[in-house]
Amino acid sequence: AAVAAAAVHSTLGSVDRSDWERAVRLLARRRNRVLVLSGDAGAGVARQAVTHLSMLRDGVAELGGSTVAVGRQLAGTAAGDVVLCVDLPRHDRWVLDAVSAARGRGLSVVAVADSPLSPLAGLSDVAFAAAAPDVGPFDSYVAVLALVEALVAAVAVRLKGSAVEHLDSVESLWHDTGALNDFS
Questions:
Q1: How many CB atoms lie within 10 A of CB 181?
Q2: Cis ω on the peptide bond leading into residue 158 (within 30° of 0)?
Q3: Based on CB atoms within 10 Å of each CB, which residue in 16, 97, 119, 178 is the most buried?
């Protein structure tokens, strides 16, 4: 617990305010799509980002699959669309290739990486360094998740009423279809 708490504290404490504002502005631009991309180890965090962002705004999707599928998905993008990428060492080669291809198409990239010197950070418009200390045999993604959750919360604040309307619409549909059980 102490290692995870320290990672969260150092990660969120190291965020540059102007980078934060720029990333939130990019992710909240409703006229542009947001594609979320991650390496294998960060897939859970990426999926959480897709789920939460898509409940606040339209145009959010996961970018992934085979190289052919990624190419097909990127072919449908436009300049100004945004890639939110989570990838820590050991970097998945296909992720770096996908980010390079996205940059070549004029997409903006917001990255959550391990260091400002990361190959992913070098391909990004805005990069955040997240601590991922070893916990047992694996890296801990607790701080990465905390950073992504904070970004999503900031996007919700920036979108204000439109995020509330979007979330209300989702909740209403869930209610109308009986999609969820309320055990409280």
A1: 6
A2: no
A3: 119
Length of the chain measured in residues: 184
Say if strands 138-139 and 134-135 run parallel, antiparallel, or are unpaired: antiparallel
Tokens of 83: 């890639």
- Separation of alpha carbons 18 and 104, rounded Å: 25
Q: Please, which residues have CB within 8 angstroms of residue 92's CB and are 6 or more apart in sequence? A: 39, 40
* pLDDT for the residue 184: 63
R_g (Cα) of the chain, nearest Å: 17
Closest C-alpha among 111, 122, 117, 121 to residue 49: 111
Q: Which two tokens stand for residue 146?
A: 């905390």
The span from the CA of 42 to the CA of 46, in Å, is 6
What digits encode the pLDDT tens for the residues 60-77? Answer: 999 988 889 999 999 999
Q: Which of 43-47, 56-60, 142-146, 166-170 has the lowest mean pLDDT?
A: 166-170
To which residue do tokens 């979320």 refer?
A: 36
Q: Extract the tokens encoding 71.
A: 């190419």
